[in-house]
Write a structure and sequence with these properties.
By secondary structure, the protein is α/β, with parallel strands linked by helices. The chain contains 15 helices and 13 strands.
């Protein structure tokens, strides 16, 4: 099986083109009733619809048909990295996202504060989405945990999310999550998937034991679950494989971590979509490729709030005129995965893709939505091929072969 990056290294071509990849996290959805409209189709998105009329649409598959992706694999696919080859633990992404310098002896763990009831069962997997100031104060308490033979670091990420780093010789990170992904049951025990990770699993158990005692009176965040336990992998950079100067304009730490992992420059994006657009304009002349990330189409979907996801989709639409005013060569609007409000979770459904450039083969689309994307000229394709399409439409790939 060929490696896409071996090909792009050979074919990459420099020019003055500008590419913008606007990722509305969890963009894909489902109608609440059969034959109805999805969140994207319900939303009033005149600017994205206008792009659809002069662009080309399709649907991408983040990993494989029927496989529900996490945010890490979903984004790696969009970046042109095979998510089956590069399986990046979420703990690594969160650590990098808060500028923690992960070393070769570090195991990184994404933590979620949760609420345990009197029986020790999880009643809320996100502790009511506690405010960031509460989460940060709890992290300061947990950062005092000591385990003989290793160093332990606890850093706040955002709201109910934290990252734990365990540093020591001979540690491995092949350990199952402790989040059961449902309520009404107790957290799972850290279970190693191989012999090399047994030591780390025991360290995780000790951390959780101490954390339970420390947090016992801090309802709703009276415990935590562990996810994405992993070590930092080796991965080629964007500039190496695509030859582009690339910038990330993302607010949430995890996505900043993803960008940093693949060698993007992570810019100060502020806190709002308006801030991100100002950042894009201010740095327009310094980069070839811009990854712009918007989170809230995902979180509203996970909350099962169809109307709120519609509103957040409409907010994404307001960014389009600001992007187009900069005269980009290629604009892509898509998501990293689908998060239908109907399912209150990530799903396996293919993700809407809109691509516009002067050299598009127009497909007659009238609006941007799942049904139109199903008929679109891009068809259904692996998300890992999206970067090839972006590069080609920007004139950044040489001819292959004689």
């Amino acid at each position: 099986m060929y490696d896409i990056h071996d090909l792009t290294r050979k074919l990459q071509r420099k020019n003055d083109s500008k590419i913008v990849l606007l990722v509305a996290d969890g963009l894909g959805g489902l109608p609440l009733t059969p034959g109805g409209k999805t969140e994207l189709e319900t939303a009033n998105t005149p600017h994205m619809d206008a792009l659809a009329k002069k662009g080309v649409l399709g649907l991408s598959t983040p990993v494989l048909p029927g496989i529900t992706p996490g945010s890490g694999p979903g984004h790696l696919g969009l970046f042109g990295y095979d998510p089956l080859k590069y399986n990046i633990g979420r703990g690594v992404l969160e650590a990098l996202g808060v500028d923690f310098d992960l070393g070769p002896d570090d195991v990184a763990i994404r933590g979620n504060y949760c609420t345990l009831d009197s029986d020790g069962n999880i009643s809320d997997r996100r502790a009511g989405r506690i405010a960031s100031e509460i989460g940060a104060a709890l992290c300061e308490k947990l950062d005092k945990i000591e385990i003989p033979g290793v160093e332990v670091f606890v850093r706040h990420v955002k709201e109910y999310r934290l990252v734990i780093v365990i540093r020591g010789k001979g540690l491995a990170g092949e350990i199952n999550d402790t989040d059961p992904q449902k309520t009404g049951v107790p957290p799972l025990e850290p279970q190693p998937r191989d012999d090399a990770s047994k030591k780390t699993a025991e360290l995780c158990k000790e951390f959780l034991k101490q954390a339970k005692e420390i947090l016992k009176d801090d309802a709703p965040a009276n415990f935590l679950t562990m996810r994405g336990i992993a070590k930092r992998p080796s991965i080629p950079t964007y500039e190496e494989v695509y030859g582009t100067r690339t910038a990330a304009i993302a607010v949430y730490p995890m996505y900043r971590g993803l960008a940093k992992l693949v060698g993007m420059d992570v810019l100060d994006a502020g806190a709002t979509l308006e801030d991100q657009m100002k950042c894009l304009e201010a740095n327009w002349n310094d980069y070839d490729f811009f990854f712009v990330h918007f989170k809230y189409t995902d979180s509203t979907g996970e909350d099962g709030n169809f109307d709120a996801k519609v509103q957040k989709t409409e907010e994404v639409d307001t960014a389009i005129p600001k992007i187009m005013a900069l005269n980009p060569t290629v604009v892509i609007v898509t998501g990293d995965h689908s998060t239908p409000a109907k399912q209150k979770a990530h799903s396996w459904h293919p993700v809407p893709v809109l691509l516009t450039a002067d050299c598009c083969r127009f497909d007659g689309s009238e609006s941007f939505g799942e049904a139109e994307c199903l008929k679109g000229g891009l068809g259904q394709f692996p998300a890992k091929h999206l970067m090839l399409l972006a590069m080609a439409h920007a004139g950044r790939l040489e001819k292959y072969g004689a």
